[in-house]
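Hi W., the iron/sulfur cluster complex you wanted:
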Amino acid sequence: MTRRIRHILSLSGGKDSTALAIYLRDRIEDLEYVFCDTEKELPETYEYLDRLQAFLGKPIVRLKHDGRDFDHHLFLRHGFLPSPLNRWCTEHLKLRPFEHYVGSDIAINYVGLRADEDRQGYISHKPNIKAVYPFREAGLVKEDIIRILEESGLGLPAYYRWRSRSGCYFCFFQQKIEWVGLLENHPDLFYKAVEYERWSEGEPHRFTWTQGETLLELSRPERVAQIKRENAERLQALGSRRANRCLLDVFADALEDEVSSSSACLICEL
Ligand code: SF4
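Structure:
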């Protein structure tokens, strides 16, 4: 008997995987939509997924961890926070739930990398899961993705005003200005992230989410003002190089460029 091939799109709550869901809705029959929920996502992400689900007219399956959540893993590691060089969070909270959901079935995993991107990232490499890249194959670039989102009525995720990517509210891939954005838009979540930094107090090594300073240090008014000033200067420089662009677009592009070059986790951020 021939084994059925499953078609699965893993959503991150970001613009590219969302646009891919819209793009494939009427192209792939029996497409399964899933979202690996770390339970640490931004409220804007959950709201965006709900709107996408209504648009698709099909459920987005929410995949959870195996009962051992982020806090459990952090406890086992004595407060050792995940980082770009040690992404245990992606492994336990994103990749494993996805691979468990697929099981031993043969599956095609649709990934939202665009034709104008040249990057690698974390995806499943199990032999029964084959990744395909429809945007790349069709030559679709960022402008096309924005158009797909606008024509659907969904637009960009609301967090895009202050943050360039989806993922956990405390994601270590955030730039300093995005931490300031979290502080100003979701102070409750910012201070939860502060609490996670405290887990390694008293340990031989103190872990912080962002390089060179704790979040409490980053949140001091003079430091926030400095980060904003430096960011404004950077945007001015970029804005004059990218003529006719509003600064909001330049901001999003600049942050996205930095994250893209850092080989982030595709399952978290696309
Ligand atoms: S979004 Fe960031 S913190 Fe969350 S699982 Fe992915 S890499 Fe880890």
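The chain has two domains: 5-160, 176-260.

W.
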